[in-house]
What we know:
18% strand, single chain, 3-stranded parallel beta sheet, 3 helices, two-stranded antiparallel sheet
Amino acid sequence: MLLPRPWIQRGLVIYICFFKGASEELIPKMVNTLLNVKLSETESGKYVSLLDLPGNLLIIPQATLGGRLKGRNMQYHSNIEKEKGMELYSHFVTLCEKELAANTKCAEAGVVVKYGTYGNIQVLKLDTNGPFTHMIEF
């Protein structure tokens, strides 16, 4: 059974993976940093944050980001346990939603937060004017 695929217009895609040792105390810093970093280019060529754009947000849980190559195989021993990862992911999504809803510019523009389901295979199609991919570790 195919699930409906979340999609957004102009905005930011966040692929997220939690490593062992991650805790809920880290989530506010992550959200604040990711929503305020100047990665989005305006029509005039100026770089602004997602909040200043304002832009939509698509959050994709991506456990494979925690993989390490060992020989010819990938290992994921650094990843957090699935249950704890689900909790952190849910908290991250909720806080992103709250922050975007609390931002006047985003609320007036009807900005949306869409997200994938944790622990499931994600089918993605991405149209971008990049690619601009940045890895930010917390």
